Amino acid sequence: MKSPMPQNPRTCVIAEPLFVIPYNMYTTYASVYMLQTGLTSVQLGWLTTMNLVVQMLSALVSGYATDRMGRKKALWVVDLVSWSAATLLWAVSHSWWGFALAFFFNGFQRISTTAWYCLLTEDTPADIRSRVFTALQVVATVAGFFAPIAGWLVHRTGVVLGTRLLYLYAFASMTTMIAIRHRGLRETNIGRTRMAETRRLHLRHEWRRIGAAIKTLSRNRTLMWLFGVYVMWNVQISIRTTFVTAYQMDALHIPPSFMGLLPALSSLVMAVCLATFARRFHDDHGYHWMQAGLGLLTAATILLAISAPRSVAPTIIATALTAAGTVFANPFVESLVANAMDDAERSTMLAVLNVLILLSSSPSGAIAGYLYAWNPRSSPVFAALALVASLVCAEAARRARRRLPTG
């Protein structure tokens, strides 16, 4: 008989639709919206890089802030800034400065990400963590079926007004989610211990812990390669969400109304994959599922890169492949990294992970912006290269783990 899901991950899973439904709705049109509002692709690329730099700085202190404030309070306070305030600014901005402030506020999300991750995993047995991340994947899958509403709205009102309305809805929904989730969460045992310890320690002690975590990482080849997977995973997500959608609409000339249907198609494919394969998702075979998913995502991105303008079929096939690849890869990218960390040092190790992610991905926004201005087709090519790097790191992690002593 399967163990019941603990209260914290159960609360996060239940509240998650209030985040992922509006997020899926506006993210399809976000880059095109800002480009049509007057930003150039180079400006958008630099704003993305600025956002990632702020994320990197917040990641540096995320372990200390999460330990000092407690996981629950850090999640509540920082989410209000990085999501509620940011989506409201995105909704009402008419100039570069307004969008810049929204990207700046959103950059603090790394503190709440660390807190959320700790709340999900710290009091959760290792053998059911993949089930938690699969449940979150199911929620994200169902949320995608609401995306055609965004397509209908944008078709009726235009990209700019429609996306502004979607951002306003995101502000209301995410703020409600933050309040509901805060009431249901409980501080973790490790969180209470770290709060008591951190009250007696200065921030410089956290720098020493970060240095120790980096030494631990350098000695753990499996974890090092898994961090590589996670870094490249986030690089390709950053490129795909910022420029690949714009590439599909601007270069491939896919109508905005049709783009609104793609998340629903993605959710349908995800639902079929989950219904067919979820029972076979076990951590013992995590590397195989992760590599299969990364392979499908790579194929999908390459297909978009070689598609001819106004070719709807490759877009549909690429969407289906991306959905299947995400279902296979995402739960195990998350759970394999989570299980490779020591619980007592999780917040600091996550801070190191986030810094590595952002050091690698921060330049990618500006680079992708310049490449997009030169040739929009470069965006899926760039994302495909990041996915290939993820595959290489995943195989290296699998081999390193296999060489570990079993006693």
What report would you give on this structure?
There is one protein chain. The protein contains 19 helices and no strands. 82% of the residues lie in helices and 0% in strands. The two termini are 28 Å apart. The protein has helices at residues 7-15, 17-27, 30-37, 41-69, 71-92, 96-106, 109-121, 129-143, 147-157, 159-184, 189-198, 203-219, 221-250, 256-259, 262-277, 286-305, 312-340, 346-374, 378-402. It is mostly helical and 407 residues long. Keywords: Membrane, Transmembrane, Transmembrane helix, Transport. Residues 1-401 form the Major facilitator superfamily (MFS) profile domain. It is a multi-pass membrane protein. InterPro entries: MFS (IPR011701), MFS_dom (IPR020846), MFS_trans_sf (IPR036259).
Instruction: Provide the low-confidence segments as ranges.
Output: none
- Estimate the mean pLDDT confidence: 82
Helix content, binned percent: over 70%
- Along the chain, the helix and strand elements come as HHHHHHHHHHHHHHHHHHH
Shape: globular
By DSSP, the count of extended strands is: 0
| Rg, nearest Å | 20 Å
The span between the termini is 28 Å
Number of helices: 19
Strand fraction equals: under 5%
Which class best fits the helix and strand makeup? Answer: mainly alpha
Largest sheet geometry: none
Transmembrane segments: 12-32, 44-62, 74-93, 99-120, 132-154, 166-185, 223-246, 258-277, 289-309, 315-338, 350-373, 379-397
Subcellular location: Cell membrane
Membrane topology: Multi-pass membrane protein
Organism: Alicyclobacillus mali (ex Roth et al. 2021)
